[in-house]
Amino acid sequence: MELRLVFAAAIFLGSYLPLSIILLVQDLKVDLFSRPFCSTLWQMSSECELPFNNSGLSIGFALCCLACFLTTVFVIWCKQEPQSITIIESKQIPTDLINYVVPYIVSFMSLEYSQLTKVLGFTLFMMWIFWLSYKTGQVVLNPILIILGWKLYEIKYTYQNSPTERVDKALAKTEFKPAANATIDVEFIQEVIVKRD
Predict the structure, then answer these.
(1) How many other β-carbons are positioned within 10 Å of the β-carbon of residue 137?
(2) Which domain of life is it from (predicted)?
(3) Do 102 and 89 fall within a single domain?
C-alpha cells in the first residue's frame, strides 16, 4: 500500500503543525512587543513591522503545515463511495512516535531561520524522515490524527463475494471487529481504508 506522493507529503507536513508553531514562536522579536499596536498594519505601512526575525520562512512554514493539516482532515471527512468488506483479522498498530519526536528535538538545537545552512540542513533532514516514513508505509501514523481520536489498524479482509484475502492499513475511530459473514462499509482514500463509525 503506497499513498500517492503528494497526498503522503500533505499528511506528513500536516502532522508537523505543532513543530511549525514552536519554530514560529522561537522566531519572535520580543522587543517589538513593547511598541504600541500599529493600526496601519493592514495597509502595509512602512511604520509597521511583523514581530518575526524571518517572517517569510517562519510564517510560510506554519501556514504550509496548517494548510496540509486542514487538507488531511478535509479529505478524511469527505464522504467517498462505500465498499463492503468482511473483516477476518484486525490488530491495532502501536504508534511509533520516534519519527515525530526527533524533529522536535532538532527545533530546540538553535535552529534559526536566519542561518541558511541550518534551514537547508533541517529541510534535508525532514525530507529524509518523510522518505523513510513514505517507503515504510508509516506516513499515516499521524500524531495529530491520534489526538483527534483516530487509530491505525492492520486488517485482513475480503471484498464482498470475493474469496481473495487482502491485508492493508486502515484508519478508524472505532475498533475493527472480525465477525463471521458480517460485512461493514468502509471507504478508501488512496489505498487507505477509512471506517468512520
Answers:
(1) 18
(2) Bacteria
(3) no
Do residue 35 and residue 61 come from a single domain? Answer: yes
Query: Same domain for 32 and 104?
Result: yes
**Residue 97, φ and ψ in degrees, nearest 5:** -90, 5
The conformational region for residue 161 under phi > 0 = left, psi -120 to 50 = alpha, else beta, is: left
| Cα gap 88→37, rounded to integer Å | 62
Q: pLDDT digit string (tens) for 10-69?
A: 888 998 898 899 888 888 887 766 766 665 555 555 667 777 888 888 899 999 999 999
Same structural domain, 118 and 150: no
Instruction: Give me the domain span that covers residue 160.
Output: 79-96+142-197
Q: Do 117 and 164 share a domain, yes or no?
A: no
Structural domains in the chain (count): 2
Residue located via cell numbers 531561520:
113
The DSSP bridge pattern shows strands 192-195 and 165-172 to be: parallel
Q: Are residues 179 and 123 in the same domain?
A: no
